[in-house]
Amino acid sequence: MMTETDGRAPSPLPADHPPLAPSKIGVLLVNLGTPDEPTPGAVRRYLSEFLSDERIVDLPRALWLPILHGVILNVRPAATARNYAKIWRSESNESPLRYYTRAQAEGLAARLNGVTVDWAMRYGNPSVASRLETMKESGCERILVIPLYPQYSATTTASVADAVFDAVKAMRWQPALRTAPAFHDEPHYIEALAAVTRRHLAAQDFAPERVVISFHGLPQRYFDLGDPYHCHCAKTARLLRARMGWTEDFAPLAFQSKFGREKWLEPATEDTIKRLAGEGVKKLGVIMPGFVADCIETLEEIDIAGRETFTAAGGEAFTAIPCLNDAPEMTMLLETIARRETAGWTA
Ligand SMILES: C=CC1=C(C)c2cc3[nH]c(cc4nc(cc5[nH]c(cc1n2)c(C)c5CCC(=O)O)C(CCC(=O)O)=C4C)c(C)c3C=C
Ligand SMILES: [Fe+2]
Ligand SMILES: [Fe+2]
């Protein structure tokens, strides 16, 4: 009888049938990942997993793995661990990215009655496979995965999907899966950015003369091969400017966090900060809409190092606008996405 195996059986199971958990819907939020501790060893483990992903670095393995294991994993972890230590949340002993991702899941859970909400990291812990396994065991037969990247990139969004589908390969009884699309032009997202920006700027004792719109960069080659990331960033920037009444001159687009020797998307945020200081801008803001949670790239690279770059080049006042983090507008955005993408699953 079909109803006895689909988990929704209204009638009692036969006496010899193994117990079934009640059928549930799950939503899994996934962000990039982070080390477990701000130490070189923990950073090495995390970077090893991260930088071994062919979505992140697509060079032939025979070329890349000797560089990764012979050079990068010997040199980079110590410096990166020092940077993580500057931003580590000592109260809960975790990185800001993990802290805010959990807060986002808790905020969403409070808005979705009867839905299991969980969170995972693409690299590091808790892993996508471990959370999917737990959700499945608790009876989630339908799971929506929301990659926490507003702009699609194969390096991030597609890499989350790889991890999800790899994880269910090991399951005999798989859940039904959906992955949420990128939300770079979603009105609730643009509105959330505008609301957080207005609140933050109103609390400063200066008004910025320019606001750099800075996104994480990518190798230019990935864009040339068809990754739509740059287009998504440009559209988010355009919609945000329109919402804020900013001109392109007031709020230029730039790309941060360059890694390796290849040419990356330009202009680089650091160069843009120096250029603006050189043009006499004394008060500068930076917004990073590609990150929905503050992390090493926003708190260390921009708020600490970017601020130093600006003041060394003659700037006087600098502010990094916080990410959406645990703002109520972020919860509203996630709720909108979750409800829309589970349509047909929920009554
Ligand atoms: C080739 C290398 C990298 C690509 C491509 C890349 C794309 C990419 N990354 C993010 C978001 C984040 N990246 C973060 C950290 C980080 N990124 C890289 C390299 C690439 N990223 C490295 C080596 C690191 C680690 C830090 C360091 O060693 O400098 C983070 C922060 C994680 C945290 O714990 O705080 C985020 C978030 C996006 C959105 C993206 C492509 C669009
Ligand atoms: Fe990155
Ligand atoms: Fe960085």
Automatic annotation (TrEMBL):
Pathway: Porphyrin-containing compound metabolism; protoheme biosynthesis; protoheme from protoporphyrin-IX: step 1/1. It is found in: Cytoplasm. Its EC number is 4.98.1.1. PROSITE patterns: FERROCHELATASE. Keywords: Cytoplasm, Heme biosynthesis, Iron, Lyase, Metal-binding, Porphyrin biosynthesis. Fe(2+) binds at H216, E297. CDD domains: Ferrochelatase_C, Ferrochelatase_N. It catalyses: Fe-coproporphyrin III + 2 H(+) = coproporphyrin III + Fe(2+); heme b + 2 H(+) = protoporphyrin IX + Fe(2+). Residues 1-20 are annotated as: Disordered. It comes from the Bacteria. Residues 11-20 have a biased composition (Pro residues). Pfam families: Ferrochelatase. Belongs to the ferrochelatase family. HAMAP family: Ferrochelatase. Catalyzes the ferrous insertion into protoporphyrin IX. NCBIfam families: hemH. This is Ferrochelatase. It comes from Hyphococcus aureus. The gene is hemH.
